[in-house]
Amino acid sequence: MTENSKKKIADHYARLFAEATKEWESVRHGDLPFILVGTATCGQASGSLDTFQTFAAELKKHHLAAHLIPVGCMGHCYAEPLVVIGKPGFPPILYGNVAPAVATTLVQHFLKDDNPLPELMFAALEPNDMLPSLADFPRFALESRAVLRYFGHIDPESINQYLAQGGYRALSTALQCEPEQIVDRLIHSGLRGMGGAGYPTGKKWESCRQAPGPIKYVICNGDEGDPGSFSDRAVMESSPHQVLEGLIIAGYTIGAHCGTVYLRSEYPLAAARMATAVQKAREAGLLGSNILDSGFSFDIELFQGSGAFVCGEETALIQSLEGNRGMPRHRPPYPAQQGFKEAPTLIDNVKTLANVPLIMADTDAQPAAQPRTAIFAVAGKVNNVGLVEVAIGTPLRTIVFELCGGIPKRKAFKAVQIGGPSGGCLPAAALDTPVDFESLHDWGAMMGSGGLVVLDEDDCMVEVARYFLDFTQKESCGKCTFCRIGTRHLLSILEGFTRGEGSPADIDLLVELAEDIQRGSLCGLGKTAPNPVLTALKYFRDEYEAHINQQCCPAKMCRHLTAFYIIPEKCERSCDACVGSCPTEAIYTAKHRVKAIDQEKCVKCGACLDACPPQYNAITRYSPAHTVPPAAEKQ
Q: Is residue 244 within 8 Å of residue 222, measured between CB atoms?
């Protein structure tokens, strides 16, 4: 490429950047306040759209002018709806749990009367002499935000706000490089696939680039279907242009002129925001013909799948794109040599592509290899659920207890299920394990797509393994015998354990079946389906043995091995909370107006336990195989 061509690309981008920066400065550093309201799926589920409308109505009511801006996910799902208010004379301040009533209060007292209401705030976004800043709190200070750097700061439907942060600068840089240089940078950066397998991204791009053929394709795999994982969805909802930028760079590098974003139909907001981003990129000359006056043409289309988990596997995804049933095929040939429409095809995960602009925007000619980050969607029995991004190598303990606030209600930590149904159940002994591909693999787990479910003492590891295996068994495409029939047999054995019907020989059969399924399955779904079972058995064998030998569930979670009782001495005679909560009318009034439970009618739903006022704590849960407490026998 000539120097004149490079200058044309740089000048075109410079014009876009200057216009966007001017607009950004007028909004974020002008004379008017700005209000950012998180409106990703987690925020909307918590009522952020009502909060947004309340701000609009209150500003109009009090004749106040302000920039009211919808933004993406801020990562702190436990505190939604989240709002940032910036006002001249004050640092931008983050507020959590902003219901409509709180929004009304903030307009009246902060925007109108300069009282920032410290009792309602989380902290200031920037260090200052007035208020505590986010850097003072572990939930914020311990993160290493790279991919998530724009989350909650920009309107995901505004291309100018992304440009003003330096967005598409990496594309400008890439278009001035030879494709081989881009591949070298990716290899040197150490970036690996963030969809689960962890294959080196640079080598994958190199393989596809070198594959012969006049037509090539590049696909963004947004088919995130793991239970408990939502990081891909959040990236597409909160920073869609970052994904598009990585996809365009990938197309340029391998020599493709057509890209596809494969989305789940269960992600309507992500689909809508990605569609808007594609439209805005075309209008700005960043998609279509002659991008940035470079002579390179590339366009993107969106495709919504029907929600089959197996379509997250590359060859099954290609089958779905071609209009067939999503079923994997034998490899080789790999998609990089023969994929979509028999042409060489590069397929990368959402988070992998979102990392590419960060690498290409590095100003060093050959950036030093650096630790990348990992994004986890933390859910389950943890105080601060949400998205976290940490440097690879961060211990699990730091994520669970320091970033996410530990286990609620002072319960004991039991395990983390990491990597979704393809991952494994790791015990407390693994808490100091660094989060990286190799260390997790040594424990029998994997990074997966970034799901991390925290379990406490009330979780039964047999039931957890049954739950995840039930999911993968239902999602099996049925093409290969080991996966179709093997997972069904595995599930039947686990279901027997949860009913107290297992035998010691079943444990050996469970292991034998699991290993056969791993060896014989065609794709990653079947090969990894036994992981939760094998890891739960390896680290929590005593729970399996209790279900078999004693017909009891130590965690009191399995319904067939659990019963609810009312302790007469604790029962408040004038309270009928449990009676009204029971869906089967199993609770009746015994002698002296004390309540009791008819065990034949009880369906063990636990509604009575939830309804009993905490000051009484009169309902308890026992395993029938254990000795029934004297208090319960008095019923």
A: no
DSSP output for 531-560: HHHHHHHHH-HHHHHHHHHS---TTS--GG
Output the pLDDT for position 367: 54
Pairing of strands 595-597, 563-566: unpaired
Counting every residue written for the chain, the total comes to 635
One-letter identity of residue 465:
A
Nearest C-alpha neighbor of 241 from the set 278, 215, 288, 282? 278
Is 375 within 8 Å of 388 (Cβ atoms)? yes
Packing angle of the helix pair 268-283, 231-238 (nearest 10 deg): 40
Tokens standing for residue 68: 């009211």
Count CB neighbours of 231 within 10 A. 29
Torsion sign across C-alpha atoms 487, 488, 492, 498: positive
64 close to 31: Cβ distance less than 8 angstroms: no
3 state SS of 418? strand
End-to-end Cα separation, the chain, in angstroms: 87
User: What tokens appear for 402 in the block?
Assistant: 């320091």
Residue that the structure tokens 């029998």 belong to = 444
CA distances from 221 to 243, 304, 327, 585 (A): 11, 11, 15, 49
What CA–CA distance (Å, rounded) separates 60 from 34? 14
Map tokens 């550093």 to a residue: 29
Asked if 239 and 150 count as a contact pair (C-beta separation under 8 A), the reply is yes
Alpha helices by DSSP H, listed for 129-267, are: 138-141, 159-164, 169-175, 179-189, 201-210, 231-238, 240-254
pLDDT at 342 (0 to 100):
95
User: What tokens appear for 86 in the block?
Assistant: 């910036």
Contact 40, 269 (CB under 8 A): yes
Residues of the chain with pLDDT under 50: 368, 626-635
- What's the CA gap between 19 and 160, in Å, rounded? 8
Q: What is the three-state SS of 67-136? A: EEEEECCCCCHHHCCCEEEECCCCCCEEECCCCHHHHHHHHHHHHCCCCCCHHHEEEECCCCCCCCEHHH
Q: CA 445 → CA 402, 418, 424, 530, distances in Å? A: 22, 7, 4, 11
Three-class SS state of 373: strand
Contact 54, 104 (CB under 8 A): yes
| Contact of 408 with 382, CB cutoff 8 Å | yes
Q: Which two tokens stand for residue 526?
A: 């079947």
What is the per-residue pLDDT for 210?
A: 96
Distance CA 371, CA 374 (A): 10
Q: What is the pLDDT of residue 630?
A: 41
Phi, psi dihedral angles at 369 (to 5 degrees): -60, 135
Residue 423, pLDDT score: 87
- Cα 300 off chain centre by: 24
d(CA 47, CA 43): 6
Please count the other Cβ atoms lying within 10 Å of the Cβ belonging to residue 89.
7
Q: How far apart are CA 424 and CA 534, in angstroms?
A: 8
Q: At what angle do helices 231-238 and 240-254 cross, to 10 degrees?
A: 100
Dihedral of alpha carbons 281, 283, 287, 292, sign: negative
DSSP class of 579: H
DSSP 3-state of 387: strand
| Cis peptide leading into residue 81 (ω within 30°) | yes
Query: Which tokens hold the place of 397?
Result: 């303990």
> Within 10 A of 289 (CB to CB), how many other CB atoms are there?
12
**Rounded distance between C-alpha atoms, residue 469 and residue 518, angstroms:** 13
Closest CA to 181 of 54, 1, 392, 25: 1
Is the preceding omega at residue 408 within 30 degrees of 0, hence cis? no
